[in-house]
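To whoever is on call:

I kicked off a structure prediction for a single chain this morning and the downstream step that reads the tokens threw a length-mismatch warning. I double-checked the sequence; it's 471 residues and nothing unusual in it as far as I can see. Pasting both halves so you can look.
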Amino acid sequence: MQPSRARRSRYLEPRPSRRRPAFLVALLLIAVVAAGCGVVRAAGFVHGVLGGASLADVQAVAAPQPGSIAWKLAHKERVNILVMGYGGVENDAPWLTDTVMVVSLDPATKRVAEISLPRDLMVPMDAFSSGQPVWQKLNVAYEIGMDDADWTGKKPEYTGSAGAGRFAEHVVGKVAGLPIDNYVAVDFKAFRDTVNALGGVQVCLDTALDDNLYPDYQDGYVKGGVHFPAGCQQVDGERALQLARSRHAVQPEQATDYGRARRQQLLINAIRKKAVSAGGLAKAPALMSALEKNFHSDLSLSDLKALYDWGGKLPDSATVRVGITEADLVDRYYQRAGSCGGWYADVLCAEDPTYKTLQQYVGAVFVDPKALAEKAPLEIDNASLNTEEMGDRVTSSLRQLGLQAGASIRRKPAQASVIYDYSGGRYPATTAWLQSYFSVTVVSPPPGTGTGLVVVLGRDYALKWIGKAAG
């Protein structure tokens, strides 16, 4: 069960990261297959990346089976796809998936959520026949499956390339509290080659990015660093890779976990739009070559066609972008003992070690559109005794969902959580969503001023926040 030799890929101390991008290749793949290039070439491509598909599979997609992605989309059921980026042959730790994202599709409201999970989050890895889990960072899950030589004693279903995807689905599903339908894994060589095959993509940055500690390919740093101005710009494959990998930007907002996740999500969207455009489809042969040897997935042709038909033309406004970061549901520890799997350096631990708070949040990313349309002024007040940062963290998480949450304040400690409605009932959809999310009731507000909604989080919610209470 323990690795047979020490490897840099399992070091837990701080070091320059080689964060890899990932993207929703399912949309790109079906666009490639549908582009009208040679049927024999398309058949070989699909056989290579999907682990086996006949010519008939390419020419005619079978009717969707119950429980498949196509079936779920047709029946308005939520679909969850795990998207991972791994280092590949150009990296000293080839199977670490330093980009981990759940792409969740909500056919009921025609929305997509891109949920970035932190690679440094410590989780129990229960891949072994002994039944004894091994605590590791989330980005090790795919490696455990792929590396049968070092990670011995695994359950048979978690061995080999198919087992790697299956185990990663299992681990991420447990952490996020979502049933993962399928996975996509791509290395950063394929990412770079794909962007180049598309002729580059356009990305719009809110602020400049200057990283003077960007890693090169010889365990050093790029001389002079890498630099991007604010605004919209065309980037080739290497520049896109730099945007996705950068971890040490001078600008604080670009150096955070959320900043990196946001850039990766922007790149996903840029690639998707370019790939399904007329210009992207015309580049199908080059796209096939870019992906054929550096891509793994358990998606079927039926799944791919369903994804393309459902989401190929969705507008940007249909996408919810969420990153689980140190500002909300997880916290970084440089030295910590006795929890989060033991003593480690420079790791992330969930605020709630049972993951229930994180799971509830991920499950609620699709806020009622009527509530979002109300744009209700919202305040989260912390009335707990010892959880000093809870109000700020909850506020940060709700802002990502599109709610108009203002600055949080501390209140006198209270046992029970409540909602105060100072609006006189002007925001019924938002009030209903908050009642459901926090499991609290609306009570008459005390004397005061205000026009919106105030959620007071008491000791009862604080216990849930740290995983000390059921529910």
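Update from on-call: the warning came from a stale cache, not from the record. Cleared it. Sanity check on the structure: The domain at 8-323 is CATH 3.40.630.190 (Aminopeptidase).
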